Amino acid sequence: MLGLMQEQPLLISDLIEHAARHHGEVEIVSRRVEGDIHRSNYRQAALRSRQLAQALDALGLEPGERVASLAWNGYRHFELYFGVSGSGRVLHTINPRLLPQQIAWIVNHAQDQVLCFDLTFWPIVQAIAAQCPSVRLWVALCDEAALAKLPGVEQVPNLQNYEEWIGGHPSSYQWPRFDERSASSLCYTSGTTGNPKGVLYSHQSTILHAYASALPDVMCLSARDSVLPVVPMFHVNAWGIPYSACAVGCKLVLPGPALDGQSVYQLLAAEGVTFAAGVPTVWQMLLTHMAQHDLKLPQMQRTVIGGSACPPAMIRAFRERYGIEVLHAWGMTELSPLGTLCTLKNQHLSLPEEEQMQIRLKQGRAIFGIDMKVVDANGQELPWDGRSAGELLVKGPWVVRDYFRAEGPAPLLDGWFPTGDVATLDADGFMQITDRSKDVIKSGGEWIGSIDVENIAMAHPAVLMAACVGVPHPKWDERPIVVVVRKPGQELTREDLLDFYAGKIAKWQIPDDVLFVDAIPLGATGKMQKMKLREQLQGYRLPGL
Ligand code: AMP
């Protein structure tokens, strides 16, 4: 027997219409490429998304065809999220930090029909336009005057400015109703090996993720929040924040191209931001800036940090110096992206601060909708004892089933997606990542998790960034070394740091060497690139070998 409730597909267009109707005057504040601060609101965003949908109809774009973006977090990019997906097309957000030839490969693989770009990325467009025959229209996210100032516009045929493109269309629009399983957006993983792989989200997966991510034990978003996603809208849809923001009606603050500590601080302070989200490397810049200038953020309450392991020193700094709660989160492009988030349970509230901290360091508990387990090399499930480490497998309605136009076999094992992360699960369901499976250091038959080694280094006051990698050893197979960037003006010797490890981890887990460098290579989403680091270390020999 079927239930007798209304059958309405879960569609992204409903998010923007809800926000416009119920939170129409709530602000969307953007720092623009032009350098100024732009103020809009949900009502305006809905009007302009409808104009954009009309422009796509006029172009004759079929349902499911791809519209790409190469853009920072800003109001025009926000409009693309709704105008493109809401009208039945697929928004393909491209990471502009990739190399032009990688971007051209992705555009061709996705067969993008339209590509919208911020002016910053004009050199990329110039470099790839001739190699991307599928693109019928190039749209500069600006007005006529700004486009006229670009050098070499005549080299790219079919180029238009966004304001003129959507401006001629009416702001009324009947959003189409269709199957909620239809594709809505596309994001390629920044895979370190092989070609990038496209994760194709649906309206259903996106809306379920938006509901789940606003829950109190997840991001706890509400109409009283002012939210700043530092995480880019080209990195897994800014962790879904544009969608959940529409559902709850919070103020949105979009930082544009300026992601340095000072610029982010200015926006956080000026716009009364209560909640922000980003990867650890960005927050490190903010913390350094705040410490140098003795600044505070009295309105900010909490921040979600994920994308790579959040060092304990960062959780402590936010909490103890600034009274800001850090919510450690784990996710992947393949999970839309949220899988777990770390919030305490009732039983933990009476624990001493230090014991609570040990829990906060974990990546957290599964969000309802996500199921998880850890398995050994034979695929056998391991106990939830907080010690047994194995590969983390997940499943759920916002987890990938297959990649877009995949060449290889589907990734699932018995319906579970293998994450490539090595993790433990404890009796309370808290998951902790110890490593990426390819980064684990195997020393004398034992595993050393590089994240532990890095976290200790990061707790040293003179360390800005630390990466632990394994290097070959004739007796032990591999031994860990730690590569360190010192904070500006700080003294730190190899011996100081090795002494700092004493008593914090087992002796055999302590790195064999410390290398000081000016910078650790970062990938397109701000994560440390250990592959590149290992390449740079080729020829390095451990002391005494
Ligand atoms: P991406 O798809 O580029 O977002 O990368 C996903 C990968 O980032 C995961 O498989 C993890 O290896 C890593 N990751 C994400 N969040 C965390 C976290 N909180 N701690 C450790 N690693 C993380």
UniProtKB/TrEMBL annotation:
Biological processes, Gene Ontology terms: fatty acid metabolic process
Domain AMP-binding enzyme C-terminal, chain residue ranges per copy: 453-527
Q: Which domain of life is it from?
A: Bacteria
Q: Which InterPro entries match?
A: AMP-bd_C, AMP-bd_C_sf, AMP-binding_CS, AMP-dep_synth/lig_dom, ANL_N_sf
Q: Where is the AMP-dependent synthetase/ligase domain?
A: 17-404
Q: Which Pfam families does the record associate with it?
A: AMP-binding (PF00501), AMP-binding_C (PF13193)
MF-aspect GO terms: ligase activity
Q: Which UniProt keywords apply?
A: Fatty acid metabolism, Ligase, Lipid metabolism
| Family of this protein | Belongs to the ATP-dependent AMP-binding enzyme family.
Instruction: Please give the PANTHER family that the UniProt record associates with this protein.
Output: ACYL-ACTIVATING ENZYME, BUTANOATE--COA LIGASE AAE1-RELATED
Protein name (database record): Acyl-CoA synthetase (AMP-forming)/AMP-acid ligase II
Species in which this protein is naturally found: Serpentinimonas raichei
Q: Which gene encodes it?
A: alkK
